[in-house]
Amino acid sequence: MTEYYVYEQPLNEKVRSFLRLEKLFQEYAFHLSHGSDWNNRVAIDSILQILAYTTRSDVKLEVLKELERQHSRLERLAKRPQIDQAQLSSVLKNIQTRIGELQAIGGQIGHETKNVELLNAIAQKNSVPGSICDFDLPTLKHWLTLPKETRQKHIEKWFQPFIHLDQAVQLILDVLRNSTENTNETAQHGFFQQSLDTNQAIQLLRTSIPVDGSYYPEISAGKHRFSIRFMSNDDPSLRPEQCKEDINFKLKMCAI
Question: Is the residue at 170 inside a domain?
């Protein structure tokens, strides 16, 4: 069975924000699971970036709006005979659960974590070029000497306010990614272009290429069309070049 690398291109700012948050949540989870001193530092940085991201904009409101929109669109599908009603009912129930969890959060997401003194000190030092050294922040050095289990519990507590946001964003993206099937396409001489259907709210493009392919896609999208150039670059010190041969790939134009 062929394995693929997937390259995603968001087509609006909303999905772009959700993808950035998903990446931060994944980064946090990976480094939390490993638990070394270095992993703990990256996990903390991930939390600080999530906190900064949610502080700059009303992410909770945007996520709630998108959950409600998806719920409304999916409900309309219930009357179609070809729809798997059991699966649809499960997704609708999950969306309702996530909506309830976010609505139950009082105030801005992460306000408890925002008041943690150690995190504030790290955030201030992060703004200075160069790595944080022991002499910059001895309180961090001391915290890193605590038992691994204690540090893990602290980090999990600091992340706790973002758990429901993490789950909601993941559900939104899962529904979007599974909203359509892959189509088999060919980029002639490494170039592919297609018009966007204005009657469909395409929100995300997913380009899949075999893992043994020595090329990658550069995706450019506007309101009316998008293009994909397949590039090769065996030597990172040199400028990438567009492939000259025809490239077969899979494409998803996700909309809901």
Answer: yes
